[in-house]
Fold this protein.
Amino acid sequence: MASNTKPDHAAGGAGRGAAIAPAIALTIAGSDSSGGAGIQADLKTFSALGVYGASVITAITAQNTRAVTHIHDVPLDVVAGQIAAVLDDLDVGAVKIGMLSSPEIVACVAAALADYAGPVVLDPVIVAKSGAKLLRGEAIAALKEQLLPRATVITPNLPEAASLLGEAPVRDPAEAERQGRALLALGPAAVLMKGGHGEGAQCTDLLLAAGEPPRAFTSQRIETRNTHGTGCTLSSAIAAGLARGLPLAAAVAEAHSWLHAAIAAADTLHVGSGHGPVHHFHALWREEAR
């Protein structure tokens, strides 16, 4: 893997043409043709948080804010080739894994990352916001066996956690912690139980790691239908923080706060007629440009 050497700005100057070596994050996920989730949401998140984004496309979907109508898996050799090409040349500081629809693609990604030593954020994407199933049933077992033990942190929402465990979804925070610890026993270094599907005025993401007390990240729940891509966005925001060298808890705290602001600004965007996207560039776009 190539290693980028950060330049001495004090000696070389920060003027026009000065070189920089940005933090780099890699997303391995499916493409969302409407731009609100998947690879597109990940790259927007990386950019918004000051991280250079590279991507490996595992599937091409035809979807919009209302539905997913087609899913085409990318051939395995092309998935493996993309990963090899990126890791051979770029100094990747963190990897985010999203949509992997088949056990074969799960195995392919696991093998391609075997020699990668950096942090891995695994978002177990199972069902799209529209309700379309994105992870085949037989792929869940492969995900649990081959990628969960490799993950620095997994980021399931409450229905995804239930699917991984073969249980019913929970609503109670105590039950969420129990399921999170059950997932922790499957091998990841940490589990972030996302609270977006919970109930009540507060939304709490719960971070669990072996031998450590739980850490809660809480914000006011926002009433909006424009939440397309929230799971992809949160996991890629965590990966961006890790790529910049933040400890996991600090990366989660930053990601939670940033996503809350992106959801709060989502209604200022008018994209599609279904579940619109969150506003990834809420801190960058001028009000008059919207």
About this structure: The two ends are 41 Å apart (CA to CA). Residues 23-281 form a domain with the UDP-N-acetylmuramoyl-L-alanine:D-glutamate ligase fold (CATH 3.40.1190.20). The first helix runs from residue 9 to 12.
